[in-house]
Amino acid sequence: MAEHAGVSQSTVSRALANSTSITEATRARVIKSAEALGYMVDTRAAQLRQGRTGTLAVVVICRAGEAASDINPFYFSLLGSVCAAASGMGYQTLVSFQATPDQLFGKYEESGQADGVIVIGTTANDAAWQYYRDLSLDGRAVVFWGSPFDELEWVRSDNYEGGLIATQRLIAAGYRNIVHLGAVDSPQRQFRERYEGYQAAMAAAGRPASLQEVDYEADRETQGRSAIAAMVERGDIFDGLFIACDSIALGAMDELRERGIAVPQQCGIVGFDGIRAGIHTSPPLTSIEPDFEVAGALLVATVLGEEGAQMAERRVPVRLLERGSVRSAE
Amino acid sequence: MAEHAGVSQSTVSRALANSTSITEATRARVIKSAEALGYMVDTRAAQLRQGRTGTLAVVVICRAGEAASDINPFYFSLLGSVCAAASGMGYQTLVSFQATPDQLFGKYEESGQADGVIVIGTTANDAAWQYYRDLSLDGRAVVFWGSPFDELEWVRSDNYEGGLIATQRLIAAGYRNIVHLGAVDSPQRQFRERYEGYQAAMAAAGRPASLQEVDYEADRETQGRSAIAAMVERGDIFDGLFIACDSIALGAMDELRERGIAVPQQCGIVGFDGIRAGIHTSPPLTSIEPDFEVAGALLVATVLGEEGAQMAERRVPVRLLERGSVRSAE
DNA sequence: CTGAAAGCGCTTACAG
DNA sequence: CTGAAAGCGCTTACAG
Questions:
Q1: Looking at beta carbons, which residues of chain A come within 8 Å of B282?
Q2: Which positions ≥6 away from B59 have C-beta within 8 Å?
Q3: Fold of the domain built from segment(s) B158-290+317-321
Q4: What digits encode the pLDDT tens for the residues A129-163?
Q5: Which has the closest alpha carbon to A182: A196, A203, A202, A201?
Q6: CA-CA distance, A295 to A157, in Å (whole number)?
Q7: Domain HTH lacI-type, which positions (chains A, B) (predicted)?
Q8: Could you report the per-residue pLDDT of B62-76, keeping only the tens digit for each?
Q9: Alpha carbon A227 to its chain's center
Q10: What is the topology classification, in CATH, of domain A55-156?
Q11: What is the distance in angstroms between the Cα of B21 and the nearest Cα belonging to chain A?
Q12: Which of A151, B9, B100, B228 sits between 20 and 30 A of A10, alpha carbons compared?
């Protein structure tokens, strides 16, 4: 390559790396040769020399035995946003799906494969979270979406705000007995925050908070179904539901339909996550959606240790996605 | 590292690479030192020397302006399956989402970043397909999911079979006027194949085939809605629909509901792709699902140029996912 | 502004 | 079975 352009290897490198200490004439010649020869810089070699990788690892934690098509679609949206944000910052993304303990691998930094790790996915996989927690405590650059551990670097939705506006919306529509379907003691820290937002809105309206716990060991749809079944069989009175996650809400809606409870007439529902499947239920599911673009950008900025990616700013704003599972405000 | 274990660099390398020409005693010592020092082989350097990358690039072609949450969930399932299959073969996966012409990048092989490229995603993005077609014609290892070009290396669902069994199911349930919603001349080659399966089943039942074309420039849900709107407004008689893709079917079901046409009583529906959102429509959407595990494995084997990954075997088997949008067989 | 040389961290003939 | 040396394809001080 250097030979073809009649310059040294150093000059080729500088020309292609846009170094300023190169005549435009020389650069042009080098570039023309590169095109003629179909030459491209070997990224591996360049990065080895530079001591960086230009790559970020994104690991999606799954439940054991969960196929790709069973993964909560919310995480796929997040994955896409992270890849886009990384690409915008000039980083490639090494993606892997990890479920069982033997699949766990996060030593990307140690093996020179990535400059940092972004962990997203189900918090129910204890082994995985312990593994990545240790990695982080070991001083590696790893950032989590919605970590169960406060000491780690995390980025989360503004869950409190989401719970607040979801509940306010239900109250404004005139529903009286609004129950929250979720969990306060699960590793899903985000669930507790959503509950607290719900609680605040209820308190402000002078109404008691009421929580129906879901069994987070079960799959999400079963969680929703079982929760509704339990409430109905107990004879609970409710006409509004703020549900901690859309996938759970989908199961809840199925159960309500089978039991003949009409949404939104007899029961209003607001979910959380804004997944697309909620567009096609009947009625479509009203939900709280985080700003995915901000989520991706924040995760990437945080793992890269950017200035400005301070703790206080790691909250992703949310908005109400008005669809059809809540009747109009009174 | 070598110093700590009291051996040469070569020995360290051989011990860690499980070379047979190493005493177990030496290997044990090296491994212990590695653990003590937290040493790991630098993958980049190893691969540079070995002339391979141990990595596969997976590019998801999107529509311009499409956010991650708008991507057809089918492709996410496929993406997950590909990553899992690659991982099973000892390969990492470099994932990117590409929509606009300036985002197009597939020179992973040339730049030493991957040993091959797997292209999946919407066929409606002409520029992208041309780009990857050129890359493939240039001799690069690139394999496509459902390519519009016959000369490329592709892996596809057994679309003909899928169309056949979907239509047979509708016929068996006693629906008389079964229409296909799809396209025969779109770049989606798979759509034509699905139509042909439909056609064969109709012919075998002695019934005429009837095609309602969708406008593949629009987004998928609009395609479904508009197709139904057109049929109803024209006064077409139909009581069965085999729809080329679930995302289109979801839109069609929304439109049917709004127009008061009951599924499956007045109209039976079978979609294609088996996306999860179809579980929560009412009724749930009966669909044809490819075996994702086989799809991922075949894509990976093909791009790696494995023996046995012959053309004839690049068809992914499909099965009927019985849900609720077709009434029981008579 | 450009070139010759060193070196990033490995693996692999080549000797012994 | 193990070591010394070369080399994978780059970038970057160091000279000029």
A1: 257, 281-282
A2: B95, B96, B97, B98, B106, B117, B118, B119, B120, B121, B132
A3: Rossmann fold (3.40.50)
A4: 999 999 999 989 999 998 888 888 999 999 999 99
A5: A196
A6: 8
A7: 1-50
A8: 998 888 889 999 999
A9: 25
A10: Rossmann fold (3.40.50)
A11: 24
A12: B9
